[in-house]
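User: Predict the structure for this protein chain, please.
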Amino acid sequence: MLKAVGALCVIAAAGSYGVVVARDYARRPRELREARAALSMLETEIAYGATPLPEALETVGRRCDGALARFFTGAAEALAVRDGTTAGEAWEHSLARYSAHAPLRPEDLAALGSLGAVLGNSDREDQTRHLRLAGERLKILAARADDEARRNVRLWRYLGFLAGAAVALVIC
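Assistant: Here is the predicted structure, written as structure tokens:
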């Protein structure tokens, strides 16, 4: 009886791990699309609204959900303090905190991080151009992430439970 309970615990733990990995594969394309939409909103605020960067970041943060909202509002708050923090530093600091909670890969974060060097340091046209470029990068990365998700979500769900069953068979 104790072995059966232990085997079920091993299967459940391995299966849960597989489900968590599969969930991250499924979340990544969605997060990239949401980030692209947020950059488009930021572009609109900067190019057409002529909104100052802290207010534009705050507006975009209010329109987003979850970790992405905290990313934009965190950057806005860092700029609003006016302690000498540049827009690039605020962007990078907020991006570092966002990366801990987002299912993004280093190449995804690099696409977002490249904006930190130009936000607030150039005119509206140049910032708009960089926002569009980053949006296109995110679009390409989202398409790749969709392909990976199609291949790996079901694989990891089954693999977790099957690996747990294999381990349970070996130890019982």
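The chain has a mean pLDDT of 91.
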